Amino acid sequence: MFFRRAREDRAFREAQRAGYELLLRLQATQPWPDCPEPTPQDPAAEEVAVPDFLPPELRLPSRQEVAGVMMRWQQPLVIDGEIRTCPECGAYRDWIVFCMRNNSIWLRCRAGHETGEPGLDAAWFNRHSGPVDRFHPTLEEGLRHLGH
Ligand SMILES: [Zn+2]
Question: Which residue intervals of 30-138 are DSSP H helices?
């Protein structure tokens, strides 16, 4: 009687363990319904007009939240009485002017050469640029929008 009872107990424990192992395998292979796989962001979603009940990543970010702001500057850029030219190709007009988050100013010529411009600062940029009205998820998109 004692032996038979013990064997039954062991069989029960083994069945329990097998069931537990099966559960672990299920956990490992099947996604839980309450923590779904992250769905990849639809890049097109960021370009639509955005009322502010949308999640933060779809709203127009503030200047602190973006890598930088940019504007097109078509006329020659005169700094301290000198016309700036691109050190690589000599272009002197039709710039894209960037104001980065660290307040540094960069110039990008039509040919895509980028040069830091220590003679300008964020205050200058803010005086000359309009309010930020558009968010571009990538630099390329921003450049396209500005005609470069
Ligand atoms: Zn250039």
Answer: 122-128
